[in-house]
Fold this sequence. Notes:
Elements: H1 18-25, E1 31-32, E2 52-53, H2 55-65, H3 77-87, E3 91-94, E4 104-108, E5 117-122, E6 132-135, E7 146-149, H4 150-153, H5 155-158, E8 163-168
Parallel strand pairs: 1-2
Antiparallel strand pairs: 3-8, 4-5, 4-8, 5-6, 6-7
Helix pairs in contact: 1-2
Amino acid sequence: MKEYNSYQFTDDSHYKSEMIKKSRKMIGYFHYGTNDQRMDFGNWKHPRKDGFADCSSFIWLVMKQAGYNVGEKAFSTPIMENDAKTYHQYFKQIHAKDVKPGDVVIINVGSGYGPNGHTAIIDGPYKGRKTQIIEIGGIDPVGSVHRSIIKRSFHSILDQERVTYARPINNE
C-alpha cells in the first residue's frame, strides 16, 4: 500500500462499515479507465483485479457489494452530487461535522465531469482536508485503488471546490 509523503494512515481494520470493509478488499485492484472502460471490471460480485474503473464506478461497485440498491449502471460524480442534494435515491447530503468512515466525499467544479470532479470513500475520522480516503484516481490518476487524504487527492480542484459529503442510503 502506498504511503504518500510519509502520511501515517489510521488503522481502519476495526471499522464496522461495509463500505470500508469492501473498499479495503479492493486496494490494489483495477486500472483507471473512463468512458466505456469505467465498468470493465467483470462481474460485480467477483471483479477482476486487472479490470478498469473510475472514481465513481468504484464507489458504485463498493455500494453494490455492500448491499445497497444502486441499479445496474454506475453513476457519475455529477449524478452523485445531485442525488445527495436533491433526490436521495442513493445518497443523502450530510454536514462535515457528521462525516464518519464509510461516507462519501464528492468534489465537483463546473459540470463535474472528467477532471472537474472526483469522489472517494471516507476512511477515517473527519479531519478536514487531512481526512483519509480510499479511492481510484486522485493523486495516482493511472494507478489502482489506494488510500490517500482529501488534500492530496483533490488538490487540482480543491481551491475551486463544491464539496458534498454524502451518506449512502440503503433503499432496498
